[in-house]
Amino acid sequence: MEKERKAKGAMLVALAMIIKSMKEIDWVSQTDLTQNDLDLIQKQGILSSNYYDAALWERMGMAVFKVVGKSQPENASQFGYGILAETILRVYKGPLQISDPAELLAKIASLYGSAWYTFGTAEFETKDNGGIFRIKHPNGIPMPECFVPMSRGFLKRLAEASEGKNVKVICQEEGLSHMQKLTVLTLKISWE
């Protein structure tokens, strides 16, 4: 039996902040968000410590990508680099106060499939001046058109936050996300 797909609220908080702040948007008619989703986001609120159905996280992610990000991958990368990374660094400020990019990325990989999601895994393999960050989802990378560039921006910002200089992140599968189902993302990260 497949275990329930859940996402930690910490991964939804940044999306909820954007949705709540843009009151002029009719999220239900322009996206796949339901009125129940909006009631949860706007009235009850998303708590960083709770787990939520991964389908809600995916609907929220795609809604923000489509409406706010104008379905542009670079806007998803900026979201990952900016508001998502800052939210995670604030929520996990104790365990993520690390001044070594390799150590921080290994910590992020351990949190991925244990604290943030009940599905999928991540691993980090250290290389000279960088490493390889792999995200694996046997049933398919969720919302790949925005998740792939968002992950690229997110990991870049985290490597910079841990004193990495001139950080570069390249995802070899990024161009394939519109053409085929992806089950693995391989992000090559380098820094000085």
Portion in helices = 40-55%
Unreliable segments of 5+ consecutive residues = none
Q: Number of helical runs? A: 7
**N/C terminus separation:** 45 Å
Q: Describe the global form.
A: globular
Structural class: alpha+beta
Order of strands, widest sheet = 3-4-6-5
The rounded Rg comes to 16 Å
Mean pLDDT equals 94
Report on the biggest sheet. Answer: 4 strands, antiparallel
What percentage of the residues does DSSP assign to strands (E)?
Answer: 15-25%
What order do the SSEs take from the amino end to the carboxyl end, as H and E? EHHHEHHHEEHEE
Tell me the total number of β-strands: 6
Could you walk me through the main structural features you see in this protein, from its secondary elements to its overall organization?
- A four-stranded antiparallel sheet has the order 3-4-6-5, with helices on one face. Strands 1-2 form a two-stranded antiparallel ribbon.
- The mean pLDDT is 94.
- The chain is globular.
- The protein has helices spanning 13-21, 27-30, 35-44, 54-67, 73-91, 101-116, 144-161, and strands spanning 6-8, 51-53, 121-127, 130-136, 168-171, 184-190.
- It is α+β, with helices and mostly antiparallel strands and 192 residues long.
- It is 47% helix and 16% strand.
- Helix 6 (101-116) crosses helix 7.
Note the main attributes of this structure.
single chain; 192 residues; alpha+beta; two-stranded antiparallel sheet; 6 strands
Question: Secondary structure elements and their pairing?
Answer:
Elements: E1 6-8, H1 13-21, H2 27-30, H3 35-44, E2 51-53, H4 54-67, H5 73-91, H6 101-116, E3 121-127, E4 130-136, H7 144-161, E5 168-171, E6 184-190
Antiparallel strand pairs: 1-2, 3-4, 4-6, 5-6
Helix pairs in contact: 1-4, 5-7, 6-7
